[in-house]
Amino acid sequence: MKKMPSAATIAVFLLSCFSIASTGSQADCDVYAATGSSFTVRLKHVLKDSDSLRWFKNENLIFHRRSKKVIIGKNDDVDSTGSLKLTQLTKNNTGRYAPQIHRADGTSAGDLPSVRLCVLDRVQKPNVTMTCTDKGHVNFTCSVGQNEKITWFMDDEALEEKEKTLTREIKDVLKARFSCNVSNSVSSEISLPVQQNCYATLQKPHVTVNCTGDSEVTFTCAVSQKDNYVEFKWFNKENKQQESGETLTKKTKDVVNTRFFCNVSNPISYHISDPAVQNCFKPSFPTELLGISIWVFIGGGAGLLILVIVTATVCCVRARRKRRI
Ligand SMILES: *[C@@H]1O[C@H](CO)[C@@H](O)[C@H](O)[C@H]1NC(C)=O
Ligand SMILES: *[C@@H]1O[C@H](CO)[C@@H](O)[C@H](O)[C@H]1NC(C)=O
Ligand SMILES: *[C@@H]1O[C@H](CO)[C@@H](O)[C@H](O)[C@H]1NC(C)=O
Ligand SMILES: *[C@@H]1O[C@H](CO)[C@@H](O)[C@H](O)[C@H]1NC(C)=O
Ligand SMILES: *[C@@H]1O[C@H](CO)[C@@H](O)[C@H](O)[C@H]1NC(C)=O
Ligand SMILES: *[C@@H]1O[C@H](CO)[C@@H](O)[C@H](O)[C@H]1NC(C)=O
């Protein structure tokens, strides 16, 4: 039985393995300090001049003073109370600091509290980057480092999300300002606010006419900034909506004189084009002249012709009568 390691021994062994493996992990820290700052490890014992004082860092003796005489370390390493002064901290100062005191007669003053100190860099000021994702969504991503906590603000109001990336429907956040607050145990920084700009303010579109096939016409609504979110709608002169889509194709004979407009829109703006008329099919004779229907001219011409014929007939008849007489 005695040769068998007890459960407690195994547990202690495993625990020590664990604590070695996780050295420097923040879960082990009692106190956090920022790189470059100072920290004093308090000696929770009233020191006598005759006492011998030792400070250990992770089992290494780093300071030893016996009867006012410094044997290891510098005089300056401790203050008048015997507390250990750590200045200009680097991550190398991370560790467990423990004091030991022996009286003049060599007896120990007992177990004194130790401190596990962790030195961390202050967080950098974070940046928020914006990505327009699939139609209608936007991602905001905070440049958060490892082991740093994050909180989000939308127009200075704290949000629930604690993740690095925030996804929103664009229509809900057209003008909203997003910023992230990044923190660790020694500091916090907040980013500058960022707004979505997935949608550009649209400019006036231009309609181009393209004769396709032998009896079709295609109108194309051209916009200068073409992102994925632009919607196209077509109207005719009577403002009756025709179809959606960037192009509109019609049988030419159905739209000989129809004036088409396109309406481009996205969630923040819209614009209407100038009207466009097909130019593929010219009727064999003009249907209008000086804005007056050709039928007026044809009708007028026919009337004139009849008048001439009637007049000629009347003249002829009169002439014959005269001859008879
Ligand atoms: C920290 O310790 C490592 C080795 O333990 C050493 O190489 C490095 O220079 C030290 N850094 C500082 C800032 O003291
Ligand atoms: C944020 O951006 C600035 C300028 O581009 C850069 O200097 C800084 O390092 C960035 N911060 C982080 C945390 O990436
Ligand atoms: C946007 O964020 C979501 C959730 O974090 C992620 O799954 C997706 O890949 C991101 N999309 C882009 C384009 O960054
Ligand atoms: C950022 O978060 C930290 C930690 O939660 C907090 O102490 C700090 O006040 C926050 N800063 C702002 C500006 O809200
Ligand atoms: C007209 O359409 C055809 C095919 O649809 C295309 O190849 C041609 O480039 C277009 N022309 C113009 C002026 O848009
Ligand atoms: C153009 O489309 C937008 C978005 O659908 C709409 O709000 C606007 O009223 C339309 N304009 C016209 C003149 O139809």
Rg, nearest Å:
46 Å
Which hetero compounds are present in the coordinates? Answer: 2-acetamido-2-deoxy-beta-D-glucopyranose
Count of helical stretches: 2
- By DSSP, the count of extended strands is 24
Biggest sheet: strand arrangement: 1-8-7-3-4-5
Give me the secondary-structure category.
mainly beta
Tell me the CATH superfamily of the largest domain: Immunoglobulins
Strand content: 35-45%
> Helical percent range?
10-25%
Q: Briefly, what CATH class of the largest domain?
A: Mainly Beta
* Broad shape: rod-shaped
Domain count: the total is 3
- CATH architecture name of the largest domain: Sandwich
> What is the N-to-C succession of helices and strands?
HEEEEEEEEEEEEEEEEEEEEEEEEH
The chain-level mean pLDDT equals 85
Could you name the CATH topology of the largest domain? Immunoglobulin-like
The biggest beta sheet is recorded as:
6 strands, mixed
Cα(first) to Cα(last) distance is 167 Å
Instruction: Flag low-confidence runs.
Output: 10-24
